[in-house]
Design a protein that fits this description.
- The structure is a homodimer.
- Chain A is mainly alpha-helical.
- Chain A folds into 2 domains: 72 residues, Winged helix-like DNA-binding domain superfamily/Winged helix DNA-binding domain (Arc Repressor Mutant, subunit A), CATH 1.10.10.10; 136 residues, GntR ligand-binding domain-like (Four Helix Bundle (Hemerythrin (Met), subunit A)), CATH 1.20.120.530.
- The first copy, chain A, is 71% helix and 5% strand.
- In chain A, β2 and β3 form a beta hairpin.
- In chain A, α4 packs antiparallel against α10 and α5 runs antiparallel to α9.
- Chains A and B meet through α3, α4 and α7 of A and α3, α4 and α7 of B.
- The structure holds a DNA duplex.
- Chains A, B: InterPro entries: GntR_C, TF_FadR/GntR_C, Tscrpt_reg_HTH_GntR, WH-like_DNA-bd_sf, WH_DNA-bd_sf.
- Chains A, B: Keywords: DNA-binding, Transcription, Transcription regulation.
- Chains A, B: It comes from Streptomyces chisholmiae.
- Chains A, B: This is GntR family transcriptional regulator.
DNA sequence: TCCAACGAAATTGTTGACAATATCTCTGAC
DNA sequence: GTCAGAGATATTGTCAACAATTTCGTTGGA
């Protein structure tokens, strides 16, 4: 390959996106050391770009930056994951409430469509598809709510949970337990019932908390 | 003065703290341009330090960073301030609920003490004192709740509101309206009534939202 | 008087070299 | 066999010069 060294502005984006991807894919594990030189080699970026990218990731809580000791993938404990989910519960409750108040007829139809596809995915045992629809639903509700601040916070919090969400989705029977909860959110928003929508969103995430508590500590590798 | 140029690690802290202070004090106004050279002069820091500090502040949402055009103090619209307060309402609701569940007898006593001092401050027309107690109460509840994640988010959100909080506190009659709301939070937490505590915290911030809506757009300077 | 084009100044972005520190490795004594 | 210490290596932190870009002011023309 030719010397396609990515530089500056773009390098920063490339590196932070690359690390994010590696984190989601599990190619980088919590606690793993992130050496600037290595990263700049793998991503063909300058060390400056790597440095800035690491700062960005640290600001998002994905990476831990210890002075003079470099960067590590941040370790999120089960306890912290639970706290994160508690925050998500209230914030998604807010979004669901507002979505119920504000959604247009087209948006309500789209929601119902997502619900139908979720049913199918679970019926067919399509874990990946269901997982994707899951994200889609949460994003859609946040967007419809018009709560951009809450949406920003939720994105941030979700970013820190990738590892746990993966672990959760793999638990046997999880989809059939979460499906009715998702459908309850959809129905409440569709029915323009803010109180029910908020309650449904909260109930869903409260159940996630229960699953988290039942989760063995993540294997460090 | 001798050449006391602050450098590196520390410079970064000094500059970001200095800008934060200037922001609170109103010495820097939203939209104002932040030129790296000027900042490095005023804080006797290197341009590198200034750069890093600006990145930090941008990550916290206090500063807006436009490529090739430099940094500005971020402008928070009334609409955004309302959204921020809506998020605060749910998150402080969570904290109040947990505080009601978890507070030790000593912490409950401390809360009552804060309440008593608030009463006094309002009776004496001590605006600054009341404002300080206000912050103290919110911080205390967040701390007692053990919700460190929520606490972090709240700090972040509050940082973006400094300007508005200042404007609000100055409104005539504001203290006498907010005092009973604060006391309601204190009583509910003290009475170990989670539902009431959450409701009280939400009600308080809902009232802040009403005041925000009645606020004329901030004067740009 | 207004506008466009040009040039000068100001400002931000980038780089590579060097400095400071931490980590690892090897040796030798107990 | 283990541990302490010294040296070597690896890694991060800092800086100042240079490059690229934007912004501002000026000039000339319509």
């Amino acid at each position: 390959m030719a010397e396609n060294r990515v530089t500056g502005q773009e390098g920063r984006r490339v590196v932070s996106a690359g690390i994010r991807r590696a984190l989601s894919a599990g190619d980088m594990v919590p606690g793993q050391r992130l050496v600037e030189q290595e990263l700049s080699d793998t991503f063909h970026a300058t060390r400056s770009s790597v440095r800035e990218a690491l700062q960005d990731l640290a600001a998002e809580g994905l990476v831990e930056l210890v002075p003079r000791r470099g960067a590590r993938v941040r370790v999120v404990s089960v306890e912290e994951a639970i706290q994160i989910t508690e925050c998500r519960a209230t914030l998604e409750g807010l979004c669901a409430r507002r979505a119920a108040e504000l959604a247009t007829p087209e948006e309500r139809a789209e929601l119902r469509a997502i619900g139908a596809r979720m049913r199918e995915a679970v019926a067919e045992g399509d874990l990946d598809g269901y997982s994707a629809l899951n994200r889609q639903l949460h994003d859609f509700v946040a967007r419809v709510s018009g709560q951009q601040v809450a949406q920003g916070l939720l994105e941030r919090l979700n970013g820190q949970m990738v590892r746990f969400q993966f672990r959760l989705a793999m638990r046997p029977g999880r989809p059939s337990r979460s499906l009715p909860q998702h459908l309850a959110i959809i129905e409440a928003v569709d029915a323009a019932d803010p109180d029910a929508a908020e309650a449904a969103a909260r109930a869903h995430l409260d159940s996630v908390i229960l699953e988290l508590r039942a989760t063995p500590p993540p294997t460090a590798g």
